């Protein structure tokens, strides 16, 4: 007891520092450090300074040994950013009406809705992605249903293409969009919409000039929560996309796996983090503007 | 007061937990291929020895190697032969005792004195198998007679072939198709392989090794590069499937038992390996995993349908290439080819 009495109050923060240090700062430091080292012959790193990993992203040696600019990896980065962006947009489009519906239910029913939204988290993502394969494949639920009722003559190619990847991502991350929007709509003062109606605003005008601006903090928070995991995801492209197009996540996995080029994998991770950080900063600025509006 | 005792308890948990885990009873941590688990057999081992088996699984050699390098503490692992030289070079495996090595004399000829460890210093063969072609006779008229046909598809065809995304395997098969040796380290070969794969891409339905057995069984893929054990499993559910050995040959691989250098319970590991390689247990394992056992006597104990299965009987005169550990430059080139293929 004396030990605790004598100690300063910030001892209480010790668990925080331990957790952040061990689970966040240290791994991050390791990744950055690895990205500036040379690759070991059987994986791992050799402890000497090297910029090879970063050069590899933009330049490549062809099989004859000549160095030249190669956009292959840049394309992977751009594709991942694009896909994550599209996924975020789709999540807003699908998530906002859902959250709106939830927030306008009577209070005692809202908890049921929240539970329904979180049900998918009870099962592992890999298994849920597999389930989508069973739904979408040629002999799957959708195609069998349409074939049975004679709506189509041949199975639709629903699986192993961009459509399946988009659907898989939308499905995986939609709850992360719905919940923040719901929480900002739930706290909203709905009398403001009545006031807007009193001032002769139509329903659409009320939606776009009152409700959506007030829900903006939720939309921004949801976008951050969706965009960040979506940009690093590779399950959807591997399983639903048929492994035909590499995502940033696949690229990193390949470097730590078959290629045994850890520094390159680490460099790709560092760049991924930089992209995410940039996105966060943009969002934060946007959030500031929004605060100014309200 | 309450908060203070809570902090003490929390700190106690943080600092004391690792020691508590250490002190836990006799446990054997095994880390093997996801398809090689055999819960019933492991239970039998637990009953005979009183050692508890804790199973963890991987689905690629690269994962295994990365985990071991990162210091993962396991007592038994099952690397493929072509990865053994890497694991040995990185000092990740320990030498096997002589009484385990003695088991090797009971092994079938295909796995005796493997080039990656001829004296069984570090590993003992467990299963062996082939990478061939699974053909769905209902979906295609092709017989799968050649790899060349598998890669060079007729123009206008719908995407219909399945390629394993285990890069080493895919490259070995592509090398067979263009009649080059495995791991051939020449720029011309790399270019040929790249051109071959890129030309095939529009006709590929899936690059993947996860879940392809189910795809085969569901009748989704007319032609699939496949490992024999998976092809056998898929055929049990779909009788239209046929496993063939294309004219250019098949890749042969061997998976082995090994004990990591940092194993905490090496004695239990030795007991486990010799238990698993006893003919009757090896046969049971073979049935559970759908694999060809390295133990000669075990293959005679298999049920009739497995003994007769084309997946487990390499026809006389088949060209076989044993999967190797490619040198670093080749691995580099293969990674590049694959990145380019899936860009």
Give an account of the 3D structure.
The complex is a heterodimer of chains A (294) and B (343). By secondary structure, chain A is mainly alpha-helical. Chain A has one domain (73-293): MetI-like (MetI-like fold), CATH 1.10.3720.10. Helix content of chain A is 71%, strand content 5%. In chain A, strands 1-2 form a two-stranded antiparallel sheet. Chain A has a two-stranded antiparallel ribbon with strand order 3-4. The model of chain A has no long low-confidence stretch (mean pLDDT 87). The N and C termini of chain B lie far apart (60 Å). Chain B is of the alpha/beta class. In chain B, the strands form two sheets. In chain B, strands 4, 5, 6, 7, 8, 9, 10 and 11 form an eight-stranded mixed sheet that branches. A three-stranded parallel sheet of chain B has the order 2-1-3. The interface between A and B is large, with 41 and 45 residues.
Q: Please, what is the oligomeric state?
A: heterodimer
What CATH architecture label of the largest domain in chain B applies? 3-Layer(aba) Sandwich
**What is the percent of helical residues of chain A?**
over 70%
How many β-strands of chain B, per DSSP? 11
CATH topology of the largest domain in chain B: D-Maltodextrin-Binding Protein, domain 2
Poorly predicted residue ranges of chain A: none
| CATH homologous superfamily label of chain A | MetI-like
Give the biggest sheet of chain A.
Answer: 2 strands, antiparallel
Structural class of chain B: alpha/beta
Give the helix/strand layout.
The complex is a heterodimer of chains A (294) and B (343).
Chain A lengths: L1 H5 L7 H22 L1 E3 L5 E5 L2 H7 E3 L5 E3 L2 H32 L3 H12 L6 H12 L4 H8 L13 H25 L4 H8 L4 H30 L2 H6 L7 H9 L5 H32 L1
Helix pairs in contact in A: 2-13, 3-13, 4-8, 4-10, 8-10, 9-10, 10-13, 12-13
Chain B lengths: L1 H22 L3 E7 L5 H11 L2 E7 L2 H9 L6 E2 L6 H6 L8 H4 L21 E14 L10 H5 L9 E3 L3 H11 L9 H14 L3 E4 L4 H6 L5 E5 H10 L3 E4 L5 E9 L7 H11 L2 H11 L2 E2 L2 H5 L3 H5 L11 E3 L5 H14 L2
Parallel strand pairs in B: 1-2, 1-3, 5-6, 5-7, 9-11
Antiparallel strand pairs in B: 4-7, 4-8, 4-9, 4-10
Helix pairs in contact in B: 8-15
